[in-house]
Design goal:
85 residues; mainly alpha; rod-shaped
Length: 85
């Protein structure tokens, strides 16, 4: 009877451990899915940041071109009115 009782306890412990292992595997799968979503979101955000940086670079180039154009137009205006730089 003592061996039978011990076998029952061991069987119950095995079932508990299997249940815990199953729960941990489910949690691990959930975390993996969340990590995949987070990586995807990060990739999208990286692309958005790269696009914004490109836009910023283009805007800076346009500002520089505007400054040059203003100087050219001012120089032309001075020449038309008999002035020089």
């Amino acid at each position: 009877m003592q061996i039978s009782s011990l076998q029952c306890k061991l069987e119950q412990e095995r079932k508990n451990l299997n249940s815990q292992a199953y729960d941990l595997e489910r949690k691990l799968d959930m975390f993996r899915q969340e990590l995949t979503v987070a990586k995807s979101t990060l990739s999208v955000k990286d692309s958005e940041v790269a696009a914004l940086k490109n836009n910023l670079d283009e805007l800076e180039e346009l500002r520089e071109m505007k400054e040059v154009l203003v100087l050219i137009l001012f120089s032309f205006w001075l020449e038309c009115h008999g002035h020089s730089l």
